[in-house]
Design a protein that fits this description.
With about 900 residues, this protein is of the alpha/beta class. Helix content is about 35%, strand content about 15%. The longest helix is centred in the first third of the chain and has 43 residues, at about 1-45. The chain starts with a helix and ends with a strand.
């Protein structure tokens, strides 16, 4: 009888869960629709002719839609938590009475959930009807192709009157370069586009105007056109026509107001025939402007078109000859000069800063990070504050509020905010997310794009993975100058970004308006409403107990103080909806078992923490995509980690150069979605199962034994998408035969081999995709440079104890793209053969170290014309004597900008600049 009752309830529970899944699917469609509505309403705000009351009405509507989206997403996630809880209870073989109690609770929850669904659906319908009633949808559709803008028009004069002040300093070299580009006669006589690119307030327009004033007379005709974001093609063509005529002091044709676009373009083209013209298009936001006017401009005649733009992508028009001039921040010296001239222009001090104000003035200048507009505006603010130190200090301490309350600084904010407003909807949240990181923080590219994916910011693409789309978003924000790039100097690879302090202020300013996030800096912070994302920084060492239920989607900790374990227990019990958890660099020692309850968690970073073990409950995180425990104290992986089948990135490496690796679970093949696996120890079982991880793009393995090489090579040959491969041998007595890798992954770009080898793998020399190679402790008998020099795309090469021969040789015109070369620990190396002209023509950075028998630089070293840095580490005195001034090799190196030596003395390195 009992079995029949249980069977009946199991059947009913199964039906119930099926119905709930169906409901959830329908509810998900509603959530997607609501998000689309939010995007539609934001885009609608571009309407330049709307009335103020209508703008407020739309804002109110958007606010309602936003909160509805948040409530809908939370309801879905809470429902999934309840379903997971039910599943675990059922898997735990609960008793009949407990089963009945849970079943009744489930029915009650389902009733509440269904009621909530009906309520939200009703609200969705009401919002839709309201939008149709006010004509929002039709208005949006009519202007769908125009540029979206959240906060109204861009003020055409928002920066112009101030930036003129910025041409006082720092533009001399820029002006000379641009004038040279503008005035030089092209052999092909085709038109050329010259783009001035930089973030808002960097002085693009100032520079363009300065060049325009001096160079315009060298052309037959010229025109300056300011391009608004919501430009009209006809209006731009009309102004171009009038500008060209006016520059020759001729009367423009009549009736241009009644002409259509084709007629205006035809008249411009006819007028410019056999004329050399210069057209300045100021403040272009996308390529649609150029596409709208280019057909009106003759292609021949050596004419010049000058763009000023915040977008690097816009600066490269297709099928055109182009040059890009990037605006760089002012050096601190020039920034200080500009600030002093602006701040003390009305003082008796005549452009000099009183000594007692130097420290606080310097602090203000540093805050501007070399941005001319910010320096001019803040300098102008201080020009009205006198020379009282106390007043200056108060202004600096309250500069954030000054940015909002002071009229001029508010206009500065609007100038910078324009870049944010112009962003497509899908990029806005990605940019705002960067505001959660502290000032001057270097944000790693891979980390950021994975956190964006975890948050769900990424739009689906039929042919690209979410990370590929996310990486493209990152590049777009760099191109638009909202993020500042951090480039790896040896390869030119974009590895990270930073946010300008003032752009970060913009992001934080938008946090509240978007109900996007909050930053906790101390225990006094108190938030009155749910926060979608939370960053804990500075002196905050705990979450205030008085803080209401935050329930964020992401939690980021930037604090090297020790957090009590009770804090994390309380956080994990409250923050059930977390998708991203970044504890990197914190002094957390224990990860509470409660972390297993965060079933929505997609990103978990414990990098550089003091964690020694992971809880077994981690296996319940079935949505986890990234687990990063690099540089931590972790001793091993917990059982059940192979159950995390959605895991995409598993980063385990201790630190660079570490030879500690982790034993992988027996069923590692179940992690079929892995794209990154670093820190895995190799044994026979792993070698066999590795071939099933066909999505891998980055693989770092160690403790490889010679007996596992054949199976390992067979498995690696199955990883057709692999981009980066690092293999670390077990020791010097374990020679690896990697020649057996007969079919290396065809897209391999980075190769790190840290192991003794019987012979140099010949397949390396035919792998044209390789860009970066590191060979350590290989001890090849044959010179590897002969083969490596043939690689057409190699940009970085490191050889450390990789060769035991006496001579190295670079083939003629070898290493065509090599930028960085490191040769160290070659104890038997005596000679580097002559370098022929054209060999290593792109080499910029060279390090030679610990080669005690190498007596001199090679003949022909002077042919390395591109080299900028030469570093010599622990080289013999005979070698150094030849390089120093008056030495036999000094003529070979005198063209190098920086030559630096390093030698170890008493366990410390002493550096000398030659």
């Amino acid at each position: 009888m009992a079995e029949a009752v249980i069977s009946f309830f199991v059947q009913k529970l199964g039906e119930q869960l099926v119905n709930e899944v169906d409901l959830l699917s329908g509810f998900h469609d509603d959530v997607v629709w609501i998000k689309n509505e939010l995007q539609t309403m934001r885009a609608f705000l571009k309407d330049a002719d709307r009335r103020k009351e209508r703008e407020e009405l739309v804002e109110a509507w958007i606010t309602q839609v936003r909160y509805l989206v948040y409530n809908a997403e939370d309801s879905v996630d809470e429902f999934m938590i309840r379903m997971e809880s039910q599943r675990r209870l059922w898997n735990g073989h609960m008793g009949c009475i407990v089963f009945h109690a849970c079943f009744i609770k489930q029915l009650i929850f389902r009733h509440r959930f269904s009621t909530q669904i009906r309520k939200i659906r009703k609200e969705v319908k009401e919002i839709q009807e309201r939008g149709e009633r006010f004509g929002f949808h039709s208005a949006f559709q009519e202007g769908r192709s125009s540029i979206a803008n959240d906060d109204g028009h861009r003020d055409p004069g928002v920066a112009a009157s101030w930036v003129e002040e910025a041409d006082i300093v720092g533009l001399k070299n820029d002006t000379m370069k641009l004038e040279q580009l503008l005035l030089e006669k092209e052999e092909t006589q085709q038109r050329t586009v010259i783009s001035i690119v930089g973030m808002g307030g960097s002085g693009k327009t100032t520079l363009a105007k300065k060049v325009y004033k001096t160079a315009k007379t060298s052309f037959d005709c010229h025109a300056w056109i300011y391009v608004s974001q919501s430009f009209q093609k006809k209006e731009i063509l009309k102004r171009m026509l009038e500008g060209f005529y006016e520059s020759r002091r001729e009367a423009a044709p009549n009736h241009t107001e009644t002409m259509d676009e084709e007629k205006l373009a035809e008249m411009i083209n006819n007028y410019l025939q056999v004329k050399r013209y210069a057209l300045f298009l100021d403040d272009i936001w996308d390529t649609s402007v150029w596409e709208a006017v280019k057909y009106a401009l003759p292609h021949e005649g050596g004419s010049k078109i000058i763009f000023t733009t915040r977008s690097e992508n816009t600066a490269r028009p297709v099928h055109e000859k182009w040059h890009i001039h990037k605006m760089k921040p002012l050096s601190h010296e020039l920034a200080w000069e500009l600030f002093v001239k602006r701040a003390f222009m009305n003082e008796d001090t005549q452009g000099t800063c009183p000594q007692h104000l130097v420290e606080v003035g310097n602090a203000m200048v540093k805050r501007c990070k070399g941005l001319p507009l910010a320096i001019v505006v803040i300098g102008g603010l201080m020009s009205n504050k006198g020379t009282d130190l106390a007043e200056w200090s108060v202004v600096f301490e309250n500069l954030d509020s000054e940015l909002k309350d002071n009229e001029d600084l508010a206009r500065l904010n609007r100038a910078l905010l324009t870049s944010y407003n112009y962003l497509p909807f899908h990029l806005k949240y990605c940019f705002l997310y960067c505001g959660l990181f502290p000032e001057d923080h270097v944000i790693k590219r891979k980390k950021l794009i994975r956190m964006w994916v975890a948050e769900g910011f990424i739009e689906e693409h039929p042919r690209k993975t979410p990370e590929e789309v996310s990486s493209n978003y990152f590049t777009q924000l760099i191109d638009r100058n909202l993020l500042q790039p951090v480039i790896l100097h040896d390869t030119g690879e974009l590895i990270a970004c930073q946010v300008h302090d003032l752009m970060r202020d913009i992001a934080i300013h938008m946090f509240k308006k978007e109900n996007f996030a909050a930053i906790l800096t101390n225990r006094r912070n108190n938030f009155k409403e749910v926060q979608r994302r939370l960053a804990i920084q500075n002196t905050a060492i705990d979450i205030p107990g008085s803080m209401p239920e935050l329930n964020p989607r992401s939690l980021l900790l930037f604090n090297d103080q020790e957090f009590p374990s009770s804090s994390f227990c309380r956080m994990f019990s409250k923050f059930k909806l977390l998708r991203g958890l970044d504890l990197e660099g914190t002094k957390i020692k224990i990860l509470p078992n409660e972390v297993g309850g965060l079933i929505h968690l997609r990103y978990l970073s414990l990098r550089r923490t003091e964690i020694e073990e992971l809880p077994v409950s981690l296996q319940r995180l079935h949505n986890l995509q990234t687990l990063d425990v690099r540089d931590s104290h972790l001793k091993g992986l917990p059982t059940g980690i192979e159950m995390l089948t959605t895991l995409t990135h598993l980063n385990l490496m201790k630190f660079i150069g570490s030879r500690e690796f982790y034993k992988m679970p027996e069923r590692i093949a179940s992690l079929s979605n892995l794209q990154t696996l670093s820190g895995a120890s190799v044994d026979g079982g792993f070698s066999r199962e590795l071939g099933y991880l066909t999505q891998l793009k980055k693989l770092t393995i160690g403790e490889v034994k010679g007996e596992d090489c054949r199976q390992l090579c067979d498995s690696i040959s199955q990883l057709k998408w692999l981009r980066s491969l690092k293999i670390v041998g077990l020791g010097y007595d374990q020679e690896l035969n990697l020649q057996e890798l007969s079919q290396p992954p065809q897209y391999l770009e980075k190769l790190y081999l840290v192991c003794a080898m019987e012979e140099f793998p010949q397949w390396i020399g035919s792998h044209n995709c390789l860009r970066r190679i590191t060979l350590m402790d290989c001890q090849f008998v044959k010179d590897p440079l002969i083969t490596l020099g043939q690689l057409p795309n190699l940009v970085s090469l490191c050889l450390n104890n990789a060769y035991v021969g006496k001579q190295i040789y670079c083939t003629s015109v070898g290493f065509p793209k090599l930028r960085t070369m490191i040769i160290t620990a070659m104890e038997e190396l005596e000679e580097w053969s002559r370098i022929e002209e054209g060999t290593m023509k792109s080499l910029q950075h060279l390090l030679i170290g610990s080669c005690p028998k190498l007596k001199m630089l090679p003949d022909g070293f002077q042919h390395l014309a591109a080299i900028q840095h030469l570093f010599l580490v622990d080289m013999s005195e005979e070698f150094m004597k030849r390089v120093r001034g008056g030495g036999d090799d000094h003529l070979k190196v005198r063209h190098i900008a920086e030559i630096r030596t390093f030698r170890e003395v008493g366990g410390k390195y002493i550096t000398e600049l030659l």
